[in-house]
Amino acid sequence: MTASPLPTSGPARRTVVAAAGAAGLAVALTACGGTDDASSSSVDSGSTAGPPDDGAGGAGSEGGGAAEPLASTGDIPEGGGKVFADREVVVTQPAAGEFKAFSATCTHQGCAVGSVADGVINCPCHNSNFSIADGSVKSGPATKPLPAVEITVSGDSITLA
């Protein structure tokens, strides 16, 4: 008895699934760059949206436990700030005891801001500068402010709200 050959009329399921995954990855990587044009989505300057939940008990987590502290108030210099690249947030202290937080993603082309100095948050890609007090643009090419991120200061601990 001779076994009949398997049909070979189309690609294997594994090939189709792999191609779909590769296409999805390409779309995600392409979407990383932002634009300043009017067709891009805008964020209300009063927004308190933070970075997406990474499942580690931070913002938006339903783990029931306390959020992991982002920093100590002593880590944030008065009149300056600190970039937390891993959490995609920058925390500033514009005046003694006043703490603010903003997205660490530049609104010009989506680069990560790199530092805080001389009262401004600096983006190294195209030299946009943002106010440490309200995230507003101090110098372009960016035209939109950094979105605010909600934080909670309790004692000397700063956490994402």
UniProtKB/TrEMBL annotation:
Gene3D superfamilies: Rieske [2Fe-2S] iron-sulphur domain (2.102.10.10). Pfam families: Rieske. PROSITE patterns: RIESKE, TAT. Its cofactor is [2Fe-2S] cluster. One of its GO terms (molecular function) is 2 iron, 2 sulfur cluster binding. The keyword Iron applies. Residues 68-160 form the Rieske domain. Keywords: 2Fe-2S, Disulfide bond, Iron, Iron-sulfur, Metal-binding. Residues 55-66 have a biased composition (Gly residues). Residues 34-81 are annotated as: Disordered. CDD domains: Rieske. Residues 34-54 have a biased composition (Low complexity). GO terms for cellular component: membrane. InterPro entries: Rieske_2Fe-2S (IPR017941), Rieske_2Fe-2S_sf (IPR036922), Rieske_Fe-S_prot (IPR014349), Rieske_Fe-S_prot_C (IPR005805), TAT_signal (IPR006311). It comes from the Bacteria. Iron-sulfur subunit of the cytochrome bc1 complex, an essential component of the respiratory electron transport chain required for ATP synthesis. The bc1 complex catalyzes the oxidation of menaquinol and the reduction of cytochrome c in the respiratory chain. The bc1 complex operates through a Q-cycle mechanism that couples electron transfer to generation of the proton gradient that drives ATP synthesis. This is Cytochrome bc1 complex Rieske iron-sulfur subunit. It comes from Streptomyces toyocaensis. The lineage of its organism: Bacteria, Bacillati, Actinomycetota, Actinomycetes, Kitasatosporales.
